[in-house]
User: Fold this.
Amino acid sequence: MAETKGKADKKNTAKKTAKKRITKKEKQKQELALEIVKRLKEAYPDVDCTLEYDQAWKLLVSVRLAAQCTDARVNVVVQDLYAKYPTQEALAEAPVEAIEEIVRPCGLGPSKARDISACMKILWNEYGGQVPDDFNALLKLPGVGRKSANLIMGDVFGQPAVVTDTHCIRLVNRMGLVDGIKEPKKVEMLLWDLIPPEESNDFCHRLVEHGRAVCTARTKPYCDKCCLEDICGKHI
Assistant:
C-alpha cells in the first residue's frame, strides 16, 4: 500500500514538474514575442496592407487573387478588372469566363474567377453590397479562408487579427515563437496567445516587410542588419 502511494506521489510530482516546465517555456515565448513586437515596431513604424483597395469588397477580390501570386501583380491585374467592371454589381453580373480572362495572369484563373463571381453575388444579393464584419460570416463566403477573413477583420474593421501568410509562418518559426509548425491555423492559434491583440494586425504586416527586406526566403537572410539578430531563434 505504502509502495503504491509512493509511486503515485512520484507520478504526481513528475506531472507538476512537467507542468512547470511547460509554463516556463510559454512564459519565455511570451517575453520573446513582446520584445520582437517592440523591435519590429521601431524598425517598421508605418505599415499597411500591400494590396491596394479603396472599398472593402475590392480587398476581398484582391486577397483571393493573391493566392500563389505576388501582391504587386494583383495590384496591376485588378486595375484591368475594375476598368471593365467598376462596381460590385457589375462584377457580380459578369460572366465567369470574362473574369477569368482578366485575372489569368494571377494564376489559378478558373477557380479564382468562380470564387470572385460567387462571392460578389452573395454580397450583392444577401448583404446589400456590404462586406460582413463577422469573422464566421466571412468564412462562409466563397474563396475566403481564415487568412483572408483575418485580413478583412484587421484592415477593414480595425479588429485584432492574425494573418498567417507565408511570411508569417516562415518568420515566426525561424524566430522561435513556434516550433516547426507549418499549418496556418495552428500557427494562428499559437500567435493569439503570444501577441497582444492590439498589436496583432500590424505585427503581421511588419512580418511581411521584414521578410521582404531582411529575413528573406529565396536568398540568404541579411542577419547582420537584422534588428532581431541577438534574440532570433536561429541563433540562440
Residues 166-225 form one domain. The CA atoms of residues 96 and 113 lie 6 Å apart. The chain has a mean pLDDT of 91.
